[in-house]
Amino acid sequence: xxxxxxxxxxxxxxxxxxxxxxxxxxxxxxxxxxxxxxxxxxxxxxxxxxxxxxxxxxxxxxxxxxxxxxxxxxxxxxxxxxxxxxxxxxxxxxxxxxxxxxxxxxxxxxxxxxxxxxxxxxxxxxxxxxxxxxxxxxxxxxxxxxxxxxxxxxxxxxxxxxxxxxxxxxxxxxxxxxxxxxxxxxxxxxxxxxxxxxxxxxxxxxxxxxxxxxxxxxxxxxxxxxxxxxxxxxxxxxxxxxxxxxxxxxxxxxxxxxxxxxxxxxxxxxxxxxxxxxxxxxxxxxxxxxxxxxxxxxxxxxxxxxxxxxxxxxxxxxxxxxxxxxxxxxxxxxxxxxxxxxxxxxxxxxxxxxxxxxxxxxxxxxxxxxxxxxxxxxxxxx
Length: 382
Ligand SMILES: *Cc1c(COP(=O)(O)O)cnc(C)c1O
Known about the structure:
10 strands; 2 domains
């Protein structure tokens, strides 16, 4: 195998860029003697809520917990149906199943790869309780439309914002048109710590307070409990996230700039490039292209020292053993756009630390590969 020239992640580079501040923030926590449920978490929650423009944030130990704890707080459980997409990270569906509820999948819009909102109403039954739109790859779903559908049918809306912290729509924000938002801070996310953590956001105090208790063994007062869980965001992670949060907008701008470079350099090739909806702030958690010969392209790039990965090559309803002993509904006609996309997706390296020169190297390799494929006659490339 060739030496890695363009890695898939820039985690260590990001650490080295902020090493002094991060090391000092960690040391302060270590010297404080308080490692869970301390003042650093409280400060981060406040800063996170302010950044997102939502009333409350509650730190948790993962984005998965954020999604299911929101459902628990809203009383979603066995017998209830939750509409979402099968073209997402597995955790979206897992959170529904953790609550014992039924996952109802709708297909995607093949351009954005987000939930096709035209198909949501047909999936609603008397048992439907909620919709979970996933802002996939860093581009928001049209939340105004989701909210209209939800209002008409009296449904809850929980946003899976694990990939889209800092994204926005043309005239709406994350958290503005929903009952709650789940975020993940696992390392690879646009705002990531060195390990696991996540948060919920909501404008409802009662829901935030409920999740504050649930995450801490059902306790809001020492020794007083009701059944809950352990899902706390540690002080060390909160300290790291506090150092990183002020850089998020600038990092997202850099992601957008490198995505623009890719788009410009790959124009005219046979690749299907990411579609940015007009007026949306897509923050490119992932830069996902599509091609019928995806596997071949991935192997070619690897030979050139370029690491490209697949998100997500197996849709949830295509996983082996699906649906196991869980409850799930796949429409009669299947999910053709989801399946086609899963077979074709390839994520190119994209992170704030990626340089324009690295993008040029990747693009040159792709063009070389593309030339060898001959003309498909379909895209006007020749
Ligand atoms: C990362 C991710 C999650 C889960 O977050 P964790 O912190 O890993 O539990 C959920 N949904 C989507 C779309 C994700 O990308």
